[in-house]
Structure formats: C-alpha cells, structure tokens
Specification:
Elements lengths: L2 H11 L3 E4 L6 E5 L3 E6 L8 E6 L3 E5 L13 E6 L6 E6 L3 H10 L4 H9 L11 H4 L2
Parallel strand pairs: 1-5
Antiparallel strand pairs: 2-5, 3-4, 6-7
Helix pairs in contact: 2-3
Length: 136
C-alpha cells in the first residue's frame, strides 16, 4: 500500500492509529508530514481553487498473525499498545510449528499449507528452492 492510500485510510477512519490485519505481515507505519493538495472547480468558477491540507502524524499498525505468518518468520506475532505513552510494540511468540504442520497434513489439507507455515511465507516462490512444493 502506498503512503497516500495509507494516509487516506487512516483519515477516513477518523483515528490517529488504525489497527488492521489480513496481510499476516506485522508492521508499524508512521505517516508524518503528510499533505494533500487538491484543486476544486465549482460551477461558475473560471479557474480551479487550490487547497493544501497538512495532516498530523498518523499510524497504521498490522499485528501480523498468530498463525500462518507471511513475513519469513514462523513465530506468532501480536501487538501491545501502552495507552498512557502511546507506544506500540510488536511481540513474537514461539509455538509448536511442527505439531501444527502435522495437524494440517493429518486433516488432509494440501501439503503447501504446511510448507508455508513451516517457512513463514505465503508463496513458495519466495523460497530459495521451492521445487519440493511443486512436486505432487
């Protein structure tokens, strides 16, 4: 997501910090010094009116994933917010990845689901050698 789209989402939500998920990739993105220039031309105006809005610092925080991480690390991630200081920290936790992968295989799910959990990648293409995933 580019910075403009990120800033637009935070502003649309009407918050200083927007917590989100879905990508399974933990991050804290700070958007500071953001300004937007717009040209507005209303009916009857010969030339458009230009406006610049300077926006305060905003943050987007993605907690990552408690399962099926996609950032090259198999640890589960979560976020801790200190409501007094406003500090946000991403924390990592070990869990039994091998046991979880075996449960995936025992359930009859595709092998690639266990592979990507074991390696922390969404796509096999990111692995140095993904040939074993493509063999069926």
């Amino acid at each position: 997501m580019n910075a403009f789209a990120a800033l637009e989402r935070v502003e649309t939500a009407g918050v200083e910090t927007l917590f989100c998920g879905h990508t399974h990739q933990p991050y804290i993105r700070e958007l500071s010094g953001g300004s937007i220039q717009v040209k507005v031309q209303a009916r009857g105006m010969k030339t458009p009116r230009e406006e610049t809005m300077t926006l305060p610092m905003r943050r987007i925080v993605n907690a990552g994933s408690v399962g099926e991480p996609r950032h090259g690390n198999t640890k589960a991630t979560y976020v801790v917010l200190d409501p007094i200081s406003g500090d946000i920290n991403i924390r990592e936790v070990d869990y039994d990845v091998a046991k979880t992968c075996q449960a995936i295989l025992d359930a009859g799910l595709p092998d690639v689901f266990a592979w990507r959990l074991r390696h922390g990648f969404e796509y096999a293409e990111r692995a140095e050698d993904a040939s074993h995933v493509c063999e069926r």
